[in-house]
Amino acid sequence: MLIKTFENKRIGIDELTGQVISGVTFLNCDFSKVDLSETEFVDCIFYDSDRQLGCNFRSAKMKGASFKRCDLSVCAFNFVSALGLEISECKAQGADFSSASFMNVISHKSWFCSAYINKSNLAYTNFSKVNLERCELWDNRWTGANVTGASFSGSDLSGGEFNSFDWQSADFTGCDLTDSELGDLDIRTVNLEGVKVSRDQMSELASRLGINVLG
């Protein structure tokens, strides 16, 4: 199959809306403010390894969009509207999701979040001030990710890798952390109310405090 490549291209506002895009390479392309609602990208590349540049998705409409087995390294997703966004089996190292919205606001007191990010490399990705409460975020690599001011309350973070990770900088109450590598998590300094961990994980966390968990 011939793989198409687009370089330095400005994507039209509704050029790709609702389409299935497979096996396409986008080098330094501009998707800012583009409507990508329900658009599906499969086996696509958005990272220019020669110039170490990602694509620009700032302020794009990405409700229900999906990326499967794509390279999203260092792409900019600032201010995107991304309710229901799916990112699966992707490389997203260094991508910037700061100020992205995964929320559906019903009223000033009523809202919910929706995102499906799994089996992806999120090392050094920026999720600062992002609300990802009660979302499906399992089997990801979170090494060095910036989560300052973010909320993951009630989300499924099971099977994750959390090395070089600042647990104190975000809200993880009610999260499922089973089968995760918890890195330097200190149960004395992080609010773990409602968090799920396995007995082996609890034993490891307690052992750092000199406590032996029996049974």
From TrEMBL:
InterPro entries: 5peptide_repeat, Pentapeptide-BTB/POZ_domain. Signal peptide: none annotated. It comes from the Bacteria. Pfam families: Pentapeptide (PF00805). NCBIfam families: penta_rpt_Qnr (NF033086). This is Fluoroquinolone resistance protein. It comes from Pseudomonas brenneri.
